[in-house]
Design brief:
- The complex is a heterodimer.
- The longest helix of chain A is centred in the first third of the chain and has 36 residues.
- Chain A is 79% helix and 0% strand.
- Chain A is an all-alpha fold.
- Chain A folds into 2 domains: 73 residues, no CATH class; 185 residues, Orthogonal Bundle (MetI-like fold), CATH 1.10.3720.10.
- The termini of chain A are close together.
- The radius of gyration of chain A is 24 Å and the shape is globular.
- Chain B folds into 3 domains: 126 residues, Periplasmic binding protein-like II (D-Maltodextrin-Binding Protein, domain 2, 3-Layer(aba) Sandwich), CATH 3.40.190.10; 114 residues, Dipeptide-binding Protein, domain 1, CATH 3.90.76; 209 residues, Dipeptide-binding Protein, Domain 3 (Dipeptide-binding Protein, domain 3, Roll).
- By secondary structure, chain B is α+β, with helices and mostly antiparallel strands.
- The chains are: A mainly alpha, B alpha+beta.
- At the A-B interface, α2, α3, α5, α7 and α12 of A face α6 and α12 of B.
Chain lengths: 314, 519
Amino acid sequence: MLDYAVKRLGLAVVIVSVAMLLLFSMIYLIPGDPASVALGPRATEAMKAALRERMGLDQPIWVQFWNFYSRAWMGDLGTEVLSERPVLTVVGEQLPYTLALVAGGITWSVALGIPLGCWAAVRRGSWIDRVVGVLSVAVIAVPSFVVAIYALLIFAVALQWLPAIGAGKPGDLGDQLVHLILPSLAVGLGWVGYIARIVRASMLEVLEASHIRTAYAFGLPDRLIIYRYALSIAILPTVTLLGIGVGQMLSSAVFAEIVFSRPGIGKLVYDAILTRNFPVVSGAVLVTTAFFVLLNLLADLIVGALDPRVRSSF
Amino acid sequence: MSQTPQHGLTRRSLLASAGAFGAASTLSPRMAWSQDGKILKIRSYSDIQILDPSFRLSTPEGDIMTAIFAGLANYTNGDEWNWRPVAVETLEQLDDLTIAFKLRDKIGFTDGFGQMTAEDVKFSIERVADPANESPYAGDWDALKEVEVKDTLSGIIHLKNKFVPLWSTTLPTATCCILSKAAVEKEGGKLGTKPVAQSGPYIMTEWTPKQRTILKRNPDWAYEPGGYEEIQIFPIEDPAAAEIGFEAGDLDHTWTAVSSISRLKENPPPGGVMLEKPSLAYVWMGINQDVPPFDNKQIRRAVQHAIDRETVVEAAYFGAASTSTGIIAPGLPGHREAVLYDYDPDKARELLAAEGATDLSVTLDILNQSERLAAAQVIQANLADVGIKCEIKQNDSGTFWTLGAKEGDYWNKLQLIMGRFSMQPDPSWATVWFTPEQIGVWNWERFNSQDFAELHAQGLIESDPVKRDEIYRAMQDLMDESGCYVFLTHEVTGVLHRDTVIPGLKPNGESLLPDFKPA
């Protein structure tokens, strides 16, 4: 297991390094002068030149990349262009909001997707199975921003049950949870469908396995067979899927953060791209990428720990 | 050994709790906004990036700074552009080159920085003006010679030359917020996002980045108190999101999208009041006179005649805005009644035929916003009607605002451009960007008129309102004559507020935070 973990960790480092290279190349190919955008119409040429120098934009691109790369591995993501606050602080302030959003999305998808998939598999071919199948495809097909807008109009504007904007009062967990309900639903609803479908397929396969048939032959209660012996095996692909799902949810978080005017990494990056605030773009995307890679690493390690065949095949 | 408390959470109790929550929610819809005059929740269109008056980046930052740092003056609430004293007891123009001030005697700085003195005024003003400090607002005090301190509370502002916009666009703005000299020096010469030595009717008590800013009444402020005990400011870039936030009860006041004004006027949300405020901003289509085929003045003129400005503005703003006659809005000196070259497609075809211009194909660069795209599509149709094929190129803001810069490589490809500049309440702030020295900076039409530059210089020192009016009219006539401009609109600002709130607004709809009051 240790050998497997070391190999996976090495691969994660390579992925983050390549992502940094791609990221750096892409943001520096975007047209537009960060100094002009940042300082506005009243800035003189001298001011713009000074800012370009402070941002290191007057240096060759390979020097800029090396500076960014070497500092990033030491945990220094530079300073924000205008407020001169450390990028790590700026990103650190926003990251918890996005993590909460993604965690909320996962909660919705797991809490609804697993029971629905399980229910459909156990009642294979019934009307319940067919309804779950149609619903799964429907929620997968609806883009998260559409869910966000309709959720807002129904639950915030028409019924006024839930807030429409913001992330709740800092320090007030209850208020923050209430503010999380709609955005996390928007982010997680599509994944309810994915998880329901994969759990159903996986359950059907496990329910045909000989040890389950044996359990039925011994007359064990259905509930025990389904939840203890079948679901515990059928749920394994869901763990891997959720690792990928986190990446998708991080992307969806951008829309949710804009529609619900929530703070978060997505909104931070969006604003930073518009203002060509390169240090923030680089820092935020790097942190998000590293987070995504680490989560996938964790998912792989969990699956590896649960299933020896995965370890041996790597 | 400790024991974990047993909560007895069962499926039955969970369902019962959920049901009770749902029922309670149905019976009592959320009433998030404050109706007791204590808390006001408003939208700003951007978050704080810096709280230093000399380096502010956006209007919302200026609004906050004028609430937490007492300035010499501020604009008055209402429909007329006037100023009122804030930190001063008197502020008086003694002659063209001297302004005397006397501070109020009960204004103190927070964080133990003591009383506001004339020395702080001198420091704050000269700090903006000093080229070494590289403030983008140094131009506001371009005419400054020095600030003379007479005693603890009094002083004289000496000017090098007459500067008429001083009273309309320098003194009542955040440029004239007075900072504590000791505090700024202690902070290393520049303030960040954490305000120190606050002195206004409000103090900033909380800033949660990208989420909210909280201002509370300054307990040490001895003069006109702010209307609310607490103002919560939410940075919401998207006006549509803010409108939904208002309808959901999360906001008491917001600016709306221009395209929403008609809908909200006809059908305002319950408890909502929709206002329209004239904007000073100006939107135009520019024609780059240095790039073929527009290096031919007759073809530029043909384009001026080809554009149906009424239809363009109607399509873009759904009838909420009207066409403009130049870059200076109604109510300001220099506003004209009409443009010199208006929609006349037959004339446009005639001019193009006379120049032998057939099968012209041009590009129109715009910012990727829905209003601009709608306007550009009508322009595209108008140009097609006279035989000019027009390709619309949408740009994000970061790219758009550098298209005509001389440092780049696109200015000599740029043909048509749709621009929008915001404005201060003085005509010089409209004309300053179109002088020859601005070519390749903000003058992307590369309009090059020495007469225009001379008139601009005259306008800055001419205090006779009639003569000033003539100067700025003549300048816009020169712009029209050049064929480089098709003036479209000044837009309009939509303001939506709760009927329990009396908003504090400048004539153009921008906020005066201390002037918001409960109805």
